[in-house]
Amino acid sequence: MSFADKVNNKAREMRGRVKRNTGEVIGDRRLQAEGRSEERGSHFRQAGERLKDAFLGRGPRRPRY
To answer: What family does the Swiss-Prot or TrEMBL record give for this protein (predicted)?
Structure first.
């Protein structure tokens, strides 16, 4: 996962968190749902990037015994 991908995913996650919390404060269920879906979407993107990196051999190296 490149640094730019990490930054974009975290920014998307934070934007979703802000929407969700704003929706909770003002009582807007639609805004809450949008925020939750953006947060979950960023989590799925991060997991997909980690999986892709694992199959391509990038990422942390494990010692071979």
So the answer is: Belongs to the UPF0337 (CsbD) family.
pTM for this model (two decimals): 0.73
Counting every residue, how long is the chain?
65
pLDDT of 13-59, one tens digit each?
A: 999 999 999 999 999 999 999 999 999 999 999 998 888 888 887 66
Structural tokens at position 19: 């929407």
CA 13 to chain centre: 5
| Whole-angstrom distance, CA of residue 7 vs CA of residue 19 | 18
Domain boundaries, the chain: 3-55
Question: CB–CB of 16/42 below 8 Å?
Answer: yes
Return the C-alpha torsion angle 33, 39, 44, 47, nearest 10: -160
